[in-house]
Hints:
By secondary structure, this protein is α+β, with helices and mostly antiparallel strands. The protein is about 30% helix and about 25% strand. The protein contains eight helices and nine strands. The protein has a nine-stranded mixed beta sheet, with helices on both faces. A hairpin with a 2-residue loop joins strand 3 (about 80-90) and strand 4 (about 95-105). Helix 1 crosses helix 3 and helix 4 crosses helix 5 (about 135-145). The model is unreliable at about 240-259 (pLDDT under 50).
Amino acid sequence: MEKTLYEGFNGDEVTDEMLADASKLFSENYGVWGESAVQHMGEFAKAGSHVRLSKERLRSEYLPSDISSYVRVSVNGQLAGNVFACRWTVNANTICWITQLVVHCNYRERGLASGLLNAIKLDGDNLFGLMSSHPAACLAASKSFGSSINTASLEFMKENAESIMQASPVRYVREAKLRGALFNPDDTSGLVSGADTGFFVDHEEPLEALAWVRESMEWPLGELLDGHEFILILQAKRRRRSRSSSTGQKGALGAIAGP
């Protein structure tokens, strides 16, 4: 029987060794640069070469002080995936923003992405957000933080995405440019809710996944454009108070084991 272990850490608890493992996981499993990456980003982004992220960049850009958290999942002792999140407050709401979600290619379609997202959320989180070019990440987030991607309030995103993102301590979130018909009625690109991130990763796999998703459901976020990512912001589910307890417990990061 496989042993699956989820482990969570506050940002200041994440060691350089953990980040080295996370860097390797990302660089080998995230994706490759697209055909136009060199033109827009420079010679380092050669088409077909793996997108890489150093442990130093992970530390400086994905773990801003103690407002960040990290969860990893191992299967039989092997790192199978991880997620980074950063939290900040806007209008008395705590936003939990997923800054990175990666699952090893050998462990996909096992529910690990949803497991990671479930493990990183805390009871005090009011809103959840992410930018991703992959429909699977958006679907996993909606499953973990909402219920169905089609129940996400586009009107809420339209009214609040800009203020939420501009308050972010994470530079790439703060500097992303909102795009799509949701934010600009004159936008005829086919994108509904997204951002121009200037990140020209190859979209072959995400587009194949998007076509597959559209065979079984209506996709609310529109077309995926080169150099862009989808944006999804979800309001936290309201939990019913248990009859057996009059007080709630704060969520805490720790280890979660499963079969």
